[in-house]
Amino acid sequence: MSRPLLITDCDEVLLHMVGPFGQWLDEAHDIEIAMDQENFGRALTRRADKSVVQEEHIWPLLDGFFTTEMHRQTLVPHAARALATIAEFADIVVLTNLTDDFHAGRVAQLEAVGIRHKVQCNQGGKGRPVADLVAQYQPTATVFVDDLEHHHESVAKHAPDVWRIHMVAEPRVARHRPPAPHAHARIDDWSEALPWIIAHFAS
Length: 203
Known about the structure:
Elements: E1 5-8, H1 18-29, E2 31-33, E3 44-46, H2 55-68, H3 79-87, E4 91-96, H4 103-112, E5 118-121, H5 127-137, E6 142-146, H6 149-158, E7 163-166, H7 171-174, E8 185-186, H8 190-202
């Protein structure tokens, strides 16, 4: 029998990432991250000369963080309890934009904080993989949660019947991010998202 399906991002939805990443950049690379900068490609500056870290240098830094520093990431408040409640009557997939090299690390990282659900790695827009998951699970209803607008736009294009929540769990970032126009709701707290999800699973 089909059940509802929750497809959720991980970084800044289930686990804090920008804060721990910024702490590591400060300690290991003398780089500062601007939480108020909407364009991530312009958010990193070197303290030594105030120069912006170019985008081609950001990806190696992110790879370095996820290779050795995932232990720094902390659980978003209320996330584990919300997922535990949802898991009683729905399937859950964590759709995370990491390469497959990091899959085992992400699974272990989430299991360590009590989140034990299917983890699927992805690169690029999430619309097509969300559509594929819907085709696979044949759910009665689907809710997608992510912190990035372009993923909501992608899901709206490829899986328009999926309900979409724009969630930015880091308050220092959230206050500078407008609601994603392709999401159905902007909710930054899992305690508030939970009743919304339950209601839309039943609709």
